[in-house]
Amino acid sequence: MKMVMEGEASQNAGHMLMDSLETALAACARGERAGLRHIYETEAPRLLAVAERILRRRELAEEAVQDGFIQIWSRADQYEPGRGSARGWIYAVVRNRSLNMLRDGRREDLVSDDRMEALQDGGQLEELLASWHRLDRDSRLRECLAQLDEIRRRSILMAYVCGYTHGEIAGRLKLPLGTAKSWIRRGLSALRECMA
């Protein structure tokens, strides 16, 4: 019984030491799980809310927070108190992970039904065509774009003129996401070669 009480007292003392996020990060850097537990218990709900605001889907937000906690655990030694608050550093890790998920193409699942209908009904086709026709007829860019087939040219213009995501382009052109990404990547590569 005495050992159980001592263990509880030791655990409570550990929690008392974890009274700040800075202390918790330092504990993580030393490999002490109590530090990560403290950060999770005090910040996880708010971190999830931040990730969900960015990703707009609960399951993706949960994944971003989980990945964020793995990064917090493995990179806690990189936190420098003189450069900002521990809370700011922790939130930046989760926010950056969420933003990276958007950039990595998981955003295609986030296109709302209304937005997808607008993309498919050709509502911005005029903007796309107008941007193509506004290019100077003698410009090197127009010449290089003209060498691309219609669908690759359109996908590049959609991405860089209209600001569509890869997922939105795939939906608009009724293509698999990987195909849309590949066409844009190859089209840009051909443009670079042509412009050089």
From TrEMBL:
<dbReference type="GO" id="GO:0016987">
    <property type="term" value="F:sigma factor activity"/>
</dbReference>
<dbReference type="InterPro" id="IPR013249">
    <property type="entry name" value="RNA_pol_sigma70_r4_t2"/>
</dbReference>
<dbReference type="InterPro" id="IPR013324">
    <property type="entry name" value="RNA_pol_sigma_r3/r4-like"/>
</dbReference>
<dbReference type="InterPro" id="IPR007627">
    <property type="entry name" value="RNA_pol_sigma70_r2"/>
</dbReference>
<dbReference type="InterPro" id="IPR036388">
    <property type="entry name" value="WH-like_DNA-bd_sf"/>
</dbReference>
<comment type="similarity">
    <text>Belongs to the sigma-70 factor family. ECF subfamily.</text>
</comment>
<dbReference type="Pfam" id="PF04542">
    <property type="entry name" value="Sigma70_r2"/>
</dbReference>
<feature type="domain" description="RNA polymerase sigma-70 region 2">
    <location>
        <begin position="39"/>
        <end position="107"/>
    </location>
</feature>
<keyword id="KW-0805">Transcription regulation</keyword>
<keyword id="KW-0731">Sigma factor</keyword>
<feature type="domain" description="RNA polymerase sigma factor 70 region 4 type 2">
    <location>
        <begin position="140"/>
        <end position="191"/>
    </location>
</feature>
<keyword id="KW-0804">Transcription</keyword>
<protein>
    <submittedName>
        <fullName>Sigma-K factor</fullName>
    </submittedName>
</protein>
<dbReference type="InterPro" id="IPR014284">
    <property type="entry name" value="RNA_pol_sigma-70_dom"/>
</dbReference>
<dbReference type="InterPro" id="IPR039425">
    <property type="entry name" value="RNA_pol_sigma-70-like"/>
</dbReference>
<dbReference type="GO" id="GO:0006352">
    <property type="term" value="P:DNA-templated transcription initiation"/>
</dbReference>
<dbReference type="GO" id="GO:0003677">
    <property type="term" value="F:DNA binding"/>
</dbReference>
<dbReference type="InterPro" id="IPR013325">
    <property type="entry name" value="RNA_pol_sigma_r2"/>
</dbReference>
<dbReference type="Pfam" id="PF08281">
    <property type="entry name" value="Sigma70_r4_2"/>
</dbReference>
